[in-house]
């Protein structure tokens, strides 16, 4: 399942997708849409095209809900919310010049306690958000 692969920090088995850059160093890998689609393909058994479409549909649905101002909660993972920040005066730290910062909406992610515990190698009690 995708969840177990992400939790284990591994990528989908098999050859790397052709459009991903290969690196000579063993640094941390970024999980991409292609990686997620490949994991769905490997674990669920949908075709590669259907897997990619499924990943796109999930991400589009999350995006549309966030644009509408609705929170997105993924049990045992965390929640995404859009927060409104009003206009304020900021200061350039180099020159000290005051600059107005326009009001805007920002995306905020809050991880669940279960995810925090798993990242720290602990077994968390329950599956609460």
Overall description:
This protein has helices spanning 2-8, 33-44, 48-67, 113-119, and strands spanning 72-74, 78-85, 88-91, 98-101, 104-111. The chain folds into 2 domains: 1-15 and 30-70, no CATH class; 77-124, IHF-like DNA-binding proteins (HU Protein, Chain A). 36% of the residues lie in helices and 21% in strands. By secondary structure, it is of the alpha+beta class. Mean pLDDT is 83; it is low at 1-23.
Distance between the termini: 20 Å
Helix content: 25-40%
Strand content: 15-25%
Question: Mean pLDDT score, rounded?
Answer: 83
Number of helices: 4
Main beta sheet strand tally, sense and closure: 3 strands, antiparallel
Number of domains: 2
Give the total of beta strands: 5
Strand order of the largest sheet: 1-2-5
Q: What is the H-and-E element order?
A: HHHEEEEEH
The coarse overall form would be: elongated
Rg calc: 19 Å
Structural class: alpha+beta
Uncertain runs with pLDDT below 50, 5 residues or more? 1-23
Topology:
Elements: H1 2-8, H2 33-44, H3 48-67, E1 72-74, E2 78-85, E3 88-91, E4 98-101, E5 104-111, H4 113-119
Antiparallel strand pairs: 1-2, 2-5, 3-4
Provide keyphrases for this structure:
disordered N terminus, 129 residues, alpha+beta, 36% helix, 2 domains, two-stranded antiparallel sheet
